[in-house]
Amino acid sequence: MTLSNYLLIRSDDVQPLDWTRFHGVVPVCLGDDLLTVESLDNYGIQYAVKRDGEVVYTYTASKQYAGAPPVKRLAAWEGHWILETVEGVFVDGESLTEQLGVDEVFHYVIFRGQALFFFDQKGQVGISYGGETLPYTYDEVVHYQCCEPAFFNVASNEHMLWFYALKNGTWYYVEIGMYDE
Fold it and tell me: Is the pLDDT of residue 1 over 70?
């Protein structure tokens, strides 16, 4: 086995990982199954979610996106897979935007064991965490920007979430976190 710079390590196997297949979307495990997102074309429009190599969902972007692929992240949580694209968040292939009856859902992450995401409903951006809507709303939250403005996109790690938000004509830098003492 030739080792690459990236490895896929599972409980029973170690393999080289061809990172170029995934366009920056980190593979995840759903139980014992490996979930990946792979491009189906050379144009960055068609993608497949694969579960242990078998296609379980295909996503076709409505247009080509310059600077960054339209697929943003893949997650697994409570027996479901979640695909985030610039055109929506899909849980097991179903649109979360449609399920919630909102205009947009973005930055869907598993944070401290619970689903956290932003949603836009009639021009007001809210945050959902653990099935509850947090008591904060904004007129705009910067996300999915390309190139230099991407510096202001929503970001998160295992301890906190940070973003730039517009409220009543003023821009704010916001951090939300949970910290162990």
Answer: no
pLDDT band at 181 (very low <50, low <70, confident <90, very high): low
The CA distance from 60 to 9, in Å, is: 30
The DSSP bridge pattern shows strands 104-111 and 94-95 to be unpaired
Q: How far apart are CA 174 and CA 181, in angstroms?
A: 21
Q: Please, which contacts does 155-161 make with residues 24 or more away whose CB atoms are closer than 8 Å? A: 156/107, 156/109, 156/111, 156/116, 158/111, 158/112, 161/107, 161/109, 161/111, 161/116
Give CA 118 to chain center in angstroms.
11
Separation in Å, CA 129 to CA 18, 98, 110, 154: 34, 18, 9, 15
Give residue-wise pLDDT tens across range 90-138.
999 999 999 999 999 999 999 988 999 999 999 999 999 999 999 999 9
